[in-house]
């Protein structure tokens, strides 16, 4: 069963930017979308969400989503209203989605903040975005996405702006949500090691097309397409410290 | 590079105005000062293209000769504020600190007053006519340039290339003139076009209030205000000088827009 | 005692009433590449700006044994320390052709010595070739370059004045992964060849592993560990260093 099926997706502005994208994301699965900048990975994500940048339009293809999709953006500071408390922003979405009262929305917001492992949910809900750290903001943004009770979470470079240790925490959170809530993840990133750590399958984009796709392990060990090979070769290795226990 | 149509149209219109200002007084069909009380208030005809005013003077010749007066005042009155305002804005935005604070307070204070009230007050104090207008603009006219250029310079100064120029060993004046100025001057020139237009309108307004160019020197403002009582019956007396103002105004703003387009970095 | 390269001791910087750097010590020898790592907000960029003289600081900043302090009025002092800033899109003056920028700097410092206009032009072409661009690039304006090319131009501009210290602030963080490696190799290779003391600022340990000789770990305005790169990656001493290392996403760790 598929959570998301994209067939022949085309998007154009002055010229064609997506030239027939096919993707399939299994329910509860995690699909990584990788490629160089300008390959169309972010655009694909936005097209699926239905939020194309001004001047671009969908010119073909179908997008089938089972249930609801929500999106997590790269820059959490830009995606949050600077003049509204974090808790109020999430509660607003909850009230709209659940048609619930003020009280119920508040309780569910605090629950969501606990789900995304925000330390001190009460305090975080009263904070304005600029009072939170980058990692905390990204958690608020994930809570905001979860408030719509999605089946598919679209993540557009959600960890790129974060420091490495924080990045790792957010990735662990996404993996946990996937396992705990059965969310399907479509994860866009230029950072192959990050995607590879989270996703079972990868789709490599180049010049508006999917040039290679398959299980993560196969793609990173035996890349076939030159674009995939370039991405794999560009990864700078870091030795693992002996005796260090990762997770 | 492709020439924006606004730039071409504006340049042609302003070119016509400048040509008229330079050559017009040499080729006018009639003496603009010659009164003919028996031939006053005539409608436009083959001899008097724009008709005659209440003193029988040829309106076309007066409009042509006034072009030189009005354009000269506007350009002169706009020049000093342009140079001072760009200089102050550039240095203030680049240096920051106490100087910038001081400039910003002065700018804010002057902006708090209605512009025309200030100009009228200064012209009243400094004396009517061309001299008063030039003094008034020298005192308050630099403010808009300083404001725009300061903000732009301030934003650019935080960019890496300004540090790099300074770090490469260039002196402050050189960074300001060679590196920053070309990046901000475009906005100042666009503003200059608008300001020349506003000054022409101000000269017209001051003329209307009796504070502008003094008779008998022809000037569009005094011609419009003198002709105003005849608007209902003899429309050409105030309207044709008015059209000269409108033509010049459209030319200047098209030129300003065109230059802005041209200088915008892709 | 002769002291070669850049030595920073007890560097303190206060910005907006808040102390950002609380006494930072490190040294970069000529021809060496030292990686300065730390999270955002730890003060990495402030260190670079203080050493380059763009923000005022307390403590000692010495170059080949000479105290620089906060006095950067003399252009030969400023010239000896060059900063390659992080953002390739604001690093070049949008109005000026690259050749004009390089020739202005070369002319100001009379480089190459005794050479005239022709020699300067030849030097500009040589600089372009050093960073892997062709001579035609000199005639172009910044908007005609990609991010990676701009970073190369910024490097050429820094090297033009023959600095003794190069400060590279996240020079590759906004570039595509496939371009990162070439720019990094360029920075490291050129500094080693020219005997320039290079401080490479990054949050990315894979970058440090690829090109650095030594590592300085910064946390909240303080240096927590200084170590040769090979020791840092095999036996990091400070718990924070170990945490940073453990958090690096690795391709091998994929499921």
Order of helices and strands of chain C: EEEHEEHEHHHEHEHEEHH
CATH domain class name of chain B: Mainly Alpha
Average pLDDT of chain C, rounded to a whole number, is 89
Total beta-strand segments of chain C: 10
Proportion of residues in β-strands of chain C: 15-25%
String of helices and strands of chain B: HHHHHHHHHH
Q: Number of domains in the coordinates of chain C?
A: 1
Look up the CATH topology of chain C.
Rossmann fold
Quaternary structure type: heterotrimer
Q: What structural class do the secondary elements of chain C suggest?
A: alpha/beta
Explain this structure.
- The complex is a heterotrimer of chains A (247), B (266) and C (255).
- Chain A has two domains: 1-68 and 150-247, Rossmann fold (3-Layer(aba) Sandwich), CATH 3.40.50; 76-149, no CATH class.
- Chain A is 40% helix and 26% strand.
- Chain A contains ten helices and nine strands.
- Chain A has helices at 41-49, 76-79, 86-98, 102-115, 121-126, 134-146, 164-181, 192-198, 216-221, 226-234; strands at 2-12, 16-26, 30-34, 57-65, 69-72, 152-156, 184-189, 201-206, 209-215.
- Chain A is globular, with a radius of gyration of 18 Å.
- The two termini of chain A are 31 Å apart.
- Chain B is an all-alpha fold.
- Chain B has a single domain, classed as Orthogonal Bundle (MetI-like fold).
- Chain B contains ten helices and no strands.
- Chain B has helices at residues 5-27, 59-95, 97-112, 115-126, 130-140, 142-157, 160-167, 172-208, 220-227, 236-263.
- The N and C termini of chain B lie close together (11 Å).
- Chain C has a single domain, classed as 3-Layer(aba) Sandwich (Rossmann fold).
- Chain C has nine helices and ten strands.
- Classes of the chains: A alpha/beta (247), B mainly alpha (266), C alpha/beta (255).
- Chains in contact: A-C, B-C.
- The interface between A and C is medium-sized, with 36 and 32 residues.
């Amino acid at each position: 069963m598929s959570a998301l099926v994209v067939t022949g997706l085309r998007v154009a502005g002055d010229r064609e930017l997506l030239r027939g994208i096919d993707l399939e994301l299994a329910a509860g699965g995690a699909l990584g979308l990788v490629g160089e900048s300008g390959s169309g990975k972010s655009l694909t994500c936005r097209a699926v969400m239905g939020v194309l940048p001004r001047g671009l339009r969908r010119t073909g293809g179908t997008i089938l989503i089972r249930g609801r999709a929500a999106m997590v953006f790269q820059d959490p500071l830009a995606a949050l209203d600077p003049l509204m408390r974090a808790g109020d922003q999430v509660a607003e979405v909850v009230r709209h989605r659940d048609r619930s009262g003020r009280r119920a929305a508040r309780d569910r917001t605090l629950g969501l903040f606990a789900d995304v492992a925000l330390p001190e949910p009460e305090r975080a809900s009263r904070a304005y975005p600029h009072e939170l750290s980058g990692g905390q903001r990204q958690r608020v943004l994930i809570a905001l996405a979860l408030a719509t009770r999605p089946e598919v979470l679209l993540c557009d470079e959600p960890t790129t702006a974060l420091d490495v240790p924080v990045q790792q925490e957010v990735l662990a959170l996404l993996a946990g949500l996937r396992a705990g809530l059965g969310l399907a993840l479509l994860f866009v990133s230029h950072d192959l090691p990050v995607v590879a750590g989270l996703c079972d399958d990868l789709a490599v984009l180049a010049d508006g097309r999917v040039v290679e796709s398959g299980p993560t392990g196969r793609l990173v060990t035996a890349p076939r397409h030159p674009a995939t090979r370039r991405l794999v070769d560009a990864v700078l290795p870091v030795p693992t410290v002996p005796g260090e226990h990762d997770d | 590079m492709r020439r924006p149509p606004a730039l071409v149209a504006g340049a042609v219109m302003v070119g016509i105005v400048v040509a008229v200002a330079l050559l017009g007084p040499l080729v006018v069909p009639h003496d603009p000062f010659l009164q003919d009380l028996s031939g006053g208030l005539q409608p436009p005809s083959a001899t008097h293209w724009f008709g005659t005013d209440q003193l029988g003077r040829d309106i076309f010749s007066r409009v042509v000769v006034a072009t030189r007066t009005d354009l000269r005042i506007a350009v002169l009155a706009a020049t000093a504020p342009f140079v001072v305002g760009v200089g102050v804005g550039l240095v203030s935005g680049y240096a920051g600190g106490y100087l910038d604070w001081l400039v910003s307070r002065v700018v804010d204070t002057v902006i708090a007053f209605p512009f025309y009230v200030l100009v009228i007050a200064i012209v009243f104090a400094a004396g009517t006519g061309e001299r008063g207008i030039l003094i008034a603009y020298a005192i308050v006219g630099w403010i808009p340039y300083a404001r725009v250029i300061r903000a732009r310079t301030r934003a650019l100064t935080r960019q890496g290339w300004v540090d790099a120029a300074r770090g490469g060993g260039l002196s402050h004046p050189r960074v300001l003139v060679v590196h920053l100025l070309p990046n901000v001057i475009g906005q100042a020139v666009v503003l200059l076009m608008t300001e020349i237009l506003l000054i022409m309108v101000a000269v017209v307004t001051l003329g209307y209030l009796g504070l502008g160019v003094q008779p008998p020197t022809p000037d569009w403002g005094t011609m419009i205000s003198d002709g105003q009582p005849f608007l209902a019956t003899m429309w050409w007396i105030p309207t044709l000088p008015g059209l000269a103002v409108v033509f010049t105004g459209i030319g200047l703003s098209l030129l300003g827009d065109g230059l802005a387009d041209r200088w915008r970095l892709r | 005692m002769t002291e070669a390269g850049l030595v920073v001791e007890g560097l303190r910087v206060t910005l907006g009433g808040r102390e950002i750097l609380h006494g930072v010590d490190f040294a970069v020898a000529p021809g060496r590449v030292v990686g300065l790592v730390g999270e955002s907000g730890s003060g990495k960029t402030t260190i670079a700006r203080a050493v380059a003289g763009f923000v005022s600081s307390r403590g000692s900043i010495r170059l080949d044994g000479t105290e620089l302090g906060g006095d950067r009025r003399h252009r030969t002092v400023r010239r000896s320390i060059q900063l390659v800033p992080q953002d390739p899109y604001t690093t070049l003056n949008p109005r000026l052709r690259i050749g004009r920028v390089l020739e202005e700097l070369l002319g100001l410092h009379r480089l190459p010595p005794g050479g005239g206009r022709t020699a300067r032009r030849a030097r500009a072409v040589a600089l372009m070739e050093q960073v892997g661009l062709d001579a035609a690039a000199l005639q172009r304006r910044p908007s005609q370059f990609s991010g990676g090319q701009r970073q190369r131009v910024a490097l050429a501009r820094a090297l033009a004045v023959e600095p003794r210290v190069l400060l590279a602030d996240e020079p590759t963080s906004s570039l595509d992964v496939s371009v990162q490696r070439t720019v990094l190799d360029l920075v490291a290779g050129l500094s080693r060849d020219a005997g320039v003391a290079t401080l490479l600022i990054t949050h990315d340990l894979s970058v440090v592993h690829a090109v650095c000789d030594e590592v300085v770990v910064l946390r909240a305005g303080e240096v927590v560990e200084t170590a040769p790169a090979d020791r840092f990656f095999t036996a990091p001493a400070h718990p924070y260093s170990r945490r940073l290392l453990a958090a690096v996403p690795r391709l091998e760790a994929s499921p």
